[in-house]
Design brief:
The structure is a homodimer of 210-residue chains. In chain A, strands 5-6-4-3-7-8-9 form a seven-stranded mixed β-sheet, sandwiched between helices. A two-stranded antiparallel ribbon of chain A has the order 1-2. In chain A, helix 1 packs across helix 4 and helix 2 crosses helix 3. By secondary structure, chain A is an alpha/beta fold. Chain A is elongated, with a radius of gyration of 20 Å. The first copy, chain A, has two domains: 3-77, Arc Repressor Mutant, subunit A (Orthogonal Bundle), CATH 1.10.10; 84-204, NAD(P)-binding Rossmann-like Domain (Rossmann fold, 3-Layer(aba) Sandwich), CATH 3.40.50. Chain A has helices at residues 8-23, 34-41, 45-53, 67-77, 93-108, 160-172, 199-208, and strands at residues 31-32, 65-66, 84-89, 114-121, 130-131, 134-138, 153-156, 177-180, 193-196. The first copy, chain A, binds a DNA duplex (24 and 24 nucleotides) through residues 7, 9-10, 33-35, 43-47, 49-50, 52-53, 57-65.
DNA sequence: TAGATTGTTAATCGATTAACAATC
DNA sequence: TAGATTGTTAATCGATTAACAATC
């Protein structure tokens, strides 16, 4: 089991496998083969088997993987079975939209694990106002005592110039997972996990292929 | 030059190199070494040299890479020197935010290459209304004659269930680059380029490491 | 049993890093 | 020139794919 050092790329595919399993109409099929999963995920069937085998033996020879049981395993492995509090830093256009989108997802599906639990901004005009029932706070006012160490993931939606400072601060308060929408490479200690979601960067990648 | 088959991962790094070069205060330094660029991009210096060498010989031994000239080369290679029209499919919470964000970027920096040029939705109540001066249209009303083949990139911000159909339609109208925010794997012909930007997927990846 | 598919080992492929001659 | 850094080849590393015995 998860004997450490699972490559990042495997985790990314595991999330895809879980999504695929969840798209199967309940009760429609008891087993799914590695080749069928591979087809949906656009990866080789050996890849699927090897990825899953990193975490345990979930399949049955000659039959495939039990949909229900495998789904539960992946949910457990990927921590999709518990609420995960998320703080949003920078409540501008994009930050607001993400808050609305994520609270909406959660509202329509109580099993959706990500819960927006705090909003931060540096604009005095915004402090104290509400988005989706959450009050926007000044980052500086966030202290460890206020039972906030439970926040696990930061959405960084501040301007590029402020991103590093905000991330440093969030890290010091115990956050280890960062989804960074700002066009900056965040420099954080090795136990922090940063995923880049900078739209301009992605558009520029696409532009190369035109 | 670009003798085809440059790995995707190299293009991603090239975009990062360009961002780094642009962050250098103009006139502050004439040359930059591969190790300095590597430090900022968090990659090995040999990697930087090898990546750049795929496109030409831009450096000077013993000195480094000329900041100004290299910037211009990367701008050219990555097509950041021309306007690139983008259409947004699905003008909900997230779609609206992206339209506002991108038009704002463009307004404050006329050299920002991405121009939102069309908005589509399927909700009759939205058709004809305006976002940032652009009128929301019904996807079905989009035909090739209307001088729209120029649109190069699609932002897919429709719900998961509609994403594939919308992408198929966009592809048939000539769009080859897709930035997909819907939680679905798009299946498109091999000459299409799809980048995934599904926030839930990314959050779930981060959750594994908690 | 016969057919199918897993789990895993071996082979291949590709990407990263080290090393160094060329040269500014 | 002496020192530094490129461009590139060779070595390493890691990830993907093929192949197949085990077995349901």
């Amino acid at each position: 089991m998860a004997s450490n050092k699972i490559p990042d790329v495997v985790i990314r595919r595991m999330v895809t496998y879980l999504r695929i399993l969840r798209e199967i109409p309940p009760g429609s099929k008891e087993y799914i083969s590695s080749s069928e999963m591979g087809e949906w995920a656009a990866v080789n069937s050996a890849q699927v088997r090897k990825d899953l085998a990193l975490f345990g033996e979930f399949g049955k020879q000659g039959v495939g993987y039990p949909v229900q049981a495998l789904t539960e395993e992946l949910v457990r492995i990927l921590r999709a079975d518990r609420d995960i509090p998320v703080a949003v830093f920078g409540i501008g256009e994009l930050g607001t939209a993400l808050v609305r989108y994520l609270t909406g997802r959660r509202r329509s599906d109580p099993k959706y694990p990500f819960v927006i639990s705090a909003l931060f901004d540096s604009d005095p005009a915004k402090i104290g106002t509400n988005v989706e029932g959450l009050t926007i706070e000044l980052l500086e006012s966030w202290s460890e005592d206020k039972n906030r160490k439970e926040v696990k993931i930061a959405l960084i939606t501040v301007p590029a110039g402020a991103a590093q400072e905000v991330a440093d601060r969030a890290y010091r308060l115990g956050i280890k997972g960062f989804l960074n929408f700002a066009p900056t490479k965040l420099r954080l200690p090795p136990d922090a996990r940063v995923l880049n979601a900078d739209v301009t960067h992605q558009l520029q990648e696409l532009a190369y292929y035109l």
